[in-house]
Design goal:
heterodimer, A: 131 residues, alpha+beta, OB fold (Dihydrolipoamide Acetyltransferase, E2P), globular, B: 366 residues, six-stranded mixed beta sheet, six-stranded antiparallel beta barrel, 9 helices, 21 strands, 23% helix, 34% strand, GCVT_N (chain B)
């Protein structure tokens, strides 16, 4: 299990959000989540320019085992998606917190970020899940 | 209460991700399910299948009993050690289980049945056996390891006692024989499997299973989880009980017509129902599907045809093909214009013959 980067915030459903220097919010799934899902084989990305609501499905990742909705941690407009995942969905398995990011949201309500778990709280959540 | 095989701690030491598998705590993978799939197609991998149920049948009328119990005909088994795949049906022609039967002696046959159906199988077999005076003995003292892949047989044979090597080398497909493993461990070696590759399924006494597993690891056989076993058997066109057929489905509707022996004068359980269904017209049929677009076919998805809806049975991403394949049951007589509802989107799929993969390579037209 890799270290959970301290600058990330999390949904209980295992998506991470990182506020970038330009204020945009980059989103992916946790290393724990990719491990649970197993080898990823397909990612259904949202459309650039579409709007997403916090806590609603924005993308779908499919592993050999199962399909999972990816919820957006914040509301706003999708401004970028990780096209690289179309050919290499396994990037999420290899680097969940880095190259395996899924989409970037221009948040309409930054206060939503305060509702998310910080890295320590998320670590505690998955710790409890394992027992 | 979750059951554990004798290899449970060994799997955990190897870093396996364990899941509940029909009441058994089993490894789904040891890291990457896809890599484990490929190692079986290209080299040699092994699976702990000790959760499967081994049942020995003894008695003078055992062959008569099996002629009655099974939809395939044990009369095809003429040489000691030969094995046969068969369905065991209820009176309505529904599939109680699928199994392998080994002919081990004039009064001795061995069955391997599924883990998930163990209780009902033992009850059914025991009930039917009474009239034939056949003794039904479960063999929980055996562990079972499936070693599969193009190099699987060579790696196993290298571990056998020298006197056994030539004989096991010559063992034909779907046949079994006894041999001595490392340190004289008695093994029951069958040239069978559930992956579409050559290899052996090996019964070993529980107390010798960990040592044997470790010898196989040292011989270069990669531990593989039941996740890879599922994608391998699907590519190989093999049914999974509970997903592709159950008691509400006849073998005609499950792609298993080839296992039905309507030999003259044999009164097996379910025969009348099968013959009646065939005469009246079988309402549903099992087909193979390939999705050329991105996405994954999965169990339970709706299949749309010009004769009405069907459903995906086993469906998965197929690592050898790098796209999704599935079995589906649809109304008989439907045209080849078939779509699958994937999360509300109707995706066109191709109807194909299965197996999808044979001897490590995609089959023609897949």
């Amino acid at each position: 299990m890799s270290e959970i980067p301290g600058d990330l915030k999390f949904l209980k459903s295992h998506e991470w959000a990182r506020v970038e220097d330009n204020g945009l919010v980059r989103v992916g799934i946790s290393d724990h989540a990719q491990g649970q899902l197993g080898d990823l084989v397909y990612v259904e990305l949202p459309e650039v320019g579409s709007n997403v609501q916090a806590g609603n499905g924005a993308a779908v990742v499919e592993s050999v085992k199962a399909a999972s909705d990816i919820y957006s941690p914040v509301s706003g407009e999708i401004v970028e998606v990780n096209e690289n995942l179309n050919d290499k969905p396994e990037t999420i398995n290899e680097d969940a917190y880095g190259d395996g990011w899924i989409f970037v949201v221009k948040a309409s309500d930054r206060a939503e970020l305060d509702e998310l778990l910080d890295a320590d709280a998320y670590a505690e959540l998955i710790e409890n899940e394992d027992h | 209460m979750t059951e554990k095989t004798v290899l449970n701690a060994t799997h955990r030491e190897l870093g396996a991700r364990m899941v509940d598998f029909g009441g058994w705590d089993m490894p789904i993978n040891y890291g990457s399910q896809i890599e484990e799939h490929h190692v079986v197609r290209r080299d040699a991998g092994m699976f702990d299948v000790s959760h499967m149920t081994v049942v020995d049948l003894h008695g003078a009328r055992t062959r008569d009993f099996l002629r009655h119990l099974l939809a395939n005909s044990v009369d095809k088994l003429k040489v000691q050690g030969k094995a046969l795949y068969s369905c065991m049906l209820n009176e309505q022609g529904g599939v109680i289980d699928d199994l392998i039967v080994y002919f081990l002696g004039d009064e001795f046959f061995r069955l391997v049945v599924n883990a998930s159906t163990r209780t009902k199988d033992l009850a059914w077999i025991g009930q039917q056996a009474k009239a034939f005076g056949v003794a039904v003995q479960e063999r929980p003292d055996f562990a079972m390891i499936a070693v599969q892949g193009p190099n699987a047989r060579a790696k196993v044979i290298g571990l056998l006692h020298e006197v056994d090597r030539a004989r096991i080398e010559k063992l034909g497909r779907f046949a079994a024989a006894a041999a001595q493993g490392p340190h004289g461990a008695p093994l029951f070696i069958a040239r069978t499997g559930y992956t579409g590759e050559d290899g052996f399924e090996i019964m070993v006494l529980s107390e010798q299973a960990i040592t044997f597993w470790n010898e196989l690891v040292a011989a270069g056989v990669a531990p593989c989880g039941l996740g890879a076993r599922d994608t391998l058997r699907l590519e190989a066109g093999m049914n999974l009980y509970g997903q592709d057929m159950d008691e509400s489905v006849s073998p005609w509707e499950a792609g298993l017509a080839w296992t039905i022996a309507l030999d003259e004068g044999r009164d097996f359980i379910g025969r009348k129902a099968l013959e009646a269904q065939k005469a009246a017209g079988v309402p549903r049929t099992m087909i193979g599907l390939v999705l050329d677009d991105k996405g994954v076919l999965r169990h339970g998805q709706k299949v749309l045809t010009d004769r009405g809806d069907g459903e995906i049975l086993s469906g998965s991403f197929a690592p050898t093909l790098n796209k999704a394949v599935a079995f589906a049951r649809i109304p008989s007589g439907a045209s080849g214009d078939v779509r699958v509802d994937i999360r509300g989107r109707e995706m066109p799929v191709r109807v194909v013959k299965f197996p999808f993969v044979r001897d490590g390579k995609p089959c023609e037209g897949i």
